[in-house]
Amino acid sequence: MAAERSFSGSWSANGDKEILAMGDAREAAIWHLSGHVNLAESIAGQSDYWARCIGLVDTATGGEFRCLWRGLNGQEIFLILQAEQLSREVQVHGELVGGSGAAAGISGTLEFQWSTLMIQRRGDKISVGGYARELSGSYQLP
Questions:
Q1: What values do phi and psi take at 101, rounded to 5?
Q2: Which residue, of 42, 73, 84, 115, has the fewest CB within 10 Å?
Q3: Where in the chain are the domains?
C-alpha cells in the first residue's frame, strides 16, 4: 500500500425517502440521494465526483447507505456510510471500500456532519436536500 493521504471537501445531495410506519414510535425509510462531491485535495487524480446513494434508515437501529462516486473520467469510488439517523446535524461515518480505474483497490475512511436544507412531504414520500459539513477523510491506494 502507498502512503495514507488526507482529503476534505463538500458534498451536496438531494433526493427522496419513502417511509414505512412501524407502529406509533418507529419507522423505516428507503433513501435515494444524488449530488456533487467537490474535494479540496484530489483522490486518484480527481477532485469532482457525481455521487449516488441508496440507504435504509430505521429510527430504532440507525441507517446504512451504499454510495458510488463517479469522476468525470469515469473512475469510481465505492463507499459504505453509517449514521444513527439522517437528520439535521447528525454525524456520518463511512468507509471507502473499493473503486475502479485509478481508484482501484482504494481503502479508507471519511466522516461529515449532515445538514438538511429542505424537506417537503407528499404523502409517504418526502423530498430532501442537504449537504455535508466538515467532510474529511483519509485513504490509501495499492
A1: 60, -135
A2: 73
A3: 5-135
Cβ neighbourhood burial of 43 (10 Å; 0-12, 13-18, 19+):
buried
The CATH-assigned architecture of domain 5-135 is Beta Barrel (2.40)
Alpha-carbon distance 98 to 141, whole Å? Answer: 9
Q: What is the pTM of this model?
A: 0.90
Which amino acid is it at 97? V
Per-residue pLDDT of the chain (142 residues; tens, 9 = 90+): 678 999 999 999 999 999 888 998 899 999 999 999 999 999 999 999 999 999 999 988 889 999 999 999 999 999 999 987 666 678 999 999 999 999 999 999 999 998 876 788 877 678 989 999 999 999 999 9
CA distances from 36 to 41, 53, 118, 138 (A): 15, 11, 16, 19
List the beta bridge partners of residue 130.
Answer: 13, 116
